[in-house]
Amino acid sequence: MTNRGGTSVSLSIGGEQILVDCGSLAVHRMLEHGVNPTEVETLFFTHHHIDHTADFFQFVISSWSLGRESLTVYGPKGTERFVNAIYDLFEDDIQYREWFGHGAKGIRDIDVVPVDSEFSMSTERWSVSALPVEHSIETYAYRFTETSTGQTCVISGDTRRIDELSEFASDADLLVQDCCLAPTSTDSTFADHIPNRLAGPISDEMRRKHKQNHCDPEDAGSIAAEAGVDRLVLTHLLPNRDHDAMRKKARTVFDGEIEVAADGMCISLDKNN
Ligand SMILES: [Zn+2]
Ligand SMILES: [Zn+2]
């Protein structure tokens, strides 16, 4: 249970490092798996739930004090509040570090770019577009394409199953898909550490509420199948999930590659790797 942090995906695209969401342990996992946080100058938020934002302050202040000199944060309404909260909460801390000689660049000049349903942008090296999805708060899926290779990765964000997502993910090389509503594991290895609420199957009432906001493996598989993606990664797992059962359920509707996400999992879209 403790081997999984919050939701966060690091993309290496066109020679740049982009972070999508910044859940708990994001900075630790980057350091553990060879991603230098000082090289992450672009961050996208899918939405502002705590499991996607908990490490944001840690990321911003630690990467700046280690040498990052630029940062642009993209996200739904409210993203500016997150950035401004850094100065509200940590002004003394920032001044203390500036006293050591760390410059203002990368902390005093953070750019915030609002994302809405019309959002898309491109640089010479990569492009991205956004799709509003259906969750309890404003949430976006993102589709990233590397210019030089045309390789495309779609990140669903948290969402219930919607037809628009299949269209948005059309022909992507990789779909990283919310699959929160997964069957519980009967493996008792961590039984002592699992809160009762997560130990067994959820009630019909809870399942109904979750289905309004998240996908199950069949939803994830059907989105991948309709989109015609090459690879499907099931993510956003609650603790104590049965990974084999997840893959099998998704397999009933999708015949491409299926993996269950794990912290530190690294996927290359380069056909030569
Ligand atoms: Zn959420
Ligand atoms: Zn979430």
Description:
By secondary structure, this protein is α/β, with parallel strands linked by helices. The protein has two domains: 115 residues, Ribonuclease Z/Hydroxyacylglutathione hydrolase-like (Metallo-beta-lactamase, Chain A, 4-Layer Sandwich); 147 residues, Ribonuclease Z/Hydroxyacylglutathione hydrolase-like (Metallo-beta-lactamase, Chain A). It is 28% helix and 21% strand. Strands 6-7-8-9-10-11-12 form a seven-stranded mixed β-sheet. It has a five-stranded mixed β-sheet with strand order 1-2-3-4-5, with helices on one face. Helix 2 runs parallel beside helix 3 and helix 7 crosses helix 8. The longest helix is centred in the first third of the chain and has 21 residues. The mean pLDDT is 94. The site of one zinc ion has 4 residues, from loops.
Please supply descriptive tags for the structure shown above.
single chain; 273 residues; Metallo-beta-lactamase, Chain A; 2 domains; 5-stranded mixed β-sheet; binds zinc ion
The top-level CATH class of the largest domain is: Alpha Beta
What class do helices, strands and sheet pairing give? alpha/beta
| CATH level-4 homologous superfamily of the largest domain | Ribonuclease Z/Hydroxyacylglutathione hydrolase-like
- Radius of gyration based on Cα positions: 19 Å
Shape: globular
Integer average pLDDT: 94
| CATH fold assignment of the largest domain | Metallo-beta-lactamase, Chain A
Low-confidence stretches: none
Q: What level of helicity do the residues show?
A: 25-40%
Unique ligands: zinc ion
* Strand residue percentage: 15-25%
Order of helix and strand elements from N to C terminus: EEHEHEHEEEEEHEHHHEHE
Give the helix tally.
8
What does the largest sheet look like? 7 strands, mixed
**What is the CATH architecture assignment of the largest domain?**
4-Layer Sandwich
Distance between the termini: 31 Å
**Count of DSSP strands:** 12
Cross-sheet strand order for the largest sheet = 6-7-8-9-10-11-12
Total number of domains: 2
